[in-house]
Fold this protein.
Amino acid sequence: MSSLPRRDAMNAAATSAAVAALAVLALASSRGEEGSTMRTPRGIDRDLGKLTPGFRRRVERVLARMQARGFDAVVWEAWRSPERAAKLAAKGTGIALSMHTLGIAVDIISRKNRWDAGPEFWQALGEEYEREGIVWGGRWRSGDNPHGQGVTVAQQGIARAATREQLEMMTA
């Protein structure tokens, strides 16, 4: 009897642990920890714990792989309050019924260069989002490079009417 299945399981566990560790480092950087100088403006919520659990795990894997590729990817915004969403919509820079308010969207930027990260960063982010089945805003006509969400634009109406449990099933 071979030990190959056991070795595969051990390798998978080690890989999962490494991905989780990189995601923690990326999240710590986005919170201004680990020597980061990035500050969180009032009203911005970077807490990945407010995302649906399955979507959060996918975002953590995106962050870890971006770090592994040498990019300084950090969460700019995860969950968004309905009040903040309404203010952004009134300014013309957001949507009142944003997927952020449902816990199924995230904005990731470069810690150092923020939104001026350059095409290599955005292309890599788009690749990693899509590798996880996350809809990348960089493909939209509006070109929202930092944005990733757990449902397609066509599914947004369904998501807005869904319960938290249904959202989890849609985005796991």
